[in-house]
Specification:
20 helices, alpha/beta, elongated
Length: 451
Amino acid sequence: MSGHLFPEEPPAPPPDAPLAERMRPRRLDEVVGQRHLVGEGGFLRQAIAAGALPSLILWGPPGSGKTTLARLLARESGREFFALSAVTSGVADVRRVVEAARRLRGGGRGALLFIDEIHRFHKGQQDALLPHVEDGTVTLVGATTENPAHTVVAPLVSRCRVLVLRPLSPDDLETILRRALADAERGLGALALDVPDDVLAAIADEADGDARRALTTLEIAVSIARARAGEGERAAVTPDDVRSAAQRRLLRADRQGDAHYDLASAFIKSLRGSDPDAAVYYLMRMVESGEDPRFAARRMMIFAAEDIGLADPRALDLAVAAAEAFDRLGLPEGTLPLAEAALYLATAPKSNAVIVARNAAARAVRERGNLPIPPELRDATAATSRAAGAGRGYRYPHDEAGHHAAVPYLPEALRGTRFYEPSDQGEETAVAARLERWREAVRRASGPGTR
């Protein structure tokens, strides 16, 4: 099966295993970072001590220790450890683990099922876990880099405790790097190396909170330095070695992950807050991170109607034109009209009157149902409809003074209701004045008591 059973004391990784694998903590006390979970009084520490480890979803960025914690939790709680990857496993693999867990349970032993990248299981696969988690056949520990609220089915989330793992701090990463340099058994301590503090700081900075990435960068930088120094010579690792090892910082923006939602939120809020500098920054950060620019284009079209509306009706035209221009131009030139649109939207007057009106009208429809349409507004094309009174009394606005007929159009039960209230921004000031004249004319024509 895709997963495999680990004995209580797994064998040490072979000497040629990656440094990050060799340096995995073997006890909770060796875990660096995540003190809110494994430190004195931390949730996991207390759960282990009480013998009450629940099913968990560990949500955190790459390299924050999710897999390591799952292994340690199994060992310290006395459970057998099963590991599956959601990328390569299916329902059949889950069933095989469940059968093994039932046998263990019959012998008085518990089972911990670790599923890496649990968000990649589709709904059916996640649902297949539910009964076995609920009845305690397995203690589930799912690992994900994405917000479980968006990617894990609600019934499964409700049966698990969601724990947030934080990115490791630069100090945490430097501690891990120094430990690897000092450990002669599992790490690099048996090698003749000079690794200055500024080099360790550079690696910690480049790793962006990811312990695996920090250790991999250190391992490659050491290899570069040793090759330069020659056989038997002491190797000095330099900042240039770190740059060569890391090549470049990768922007972390999974288009379906949590960074996707955070960037989109920051982009929209910058537009709404009328900050063109922040808006174009977050736009280009999404693009440079691999986000499909069409996503940003769609968000700008929505924004133009939702947050600007009639305060500047040209905003929606420009947003649509930018989306069409990108489709014609592609990358990289297509980002120019997108940037132009973002700057225009950020600097345009703001009004949410359109979405307020839409929501209020929709609410009235839901609450009042299908109110009768006034007879004069009904379709009078057919003779039978006209005979029934459809269209009778309709006043054609273009025949009226000012091209406005001072009559109400809403169903009788809603007469006088206002869904749209123009703001005092941009072109809506003129709309507001014009609309007030028309509404006042309708009030006068309708007689006393009309709002």
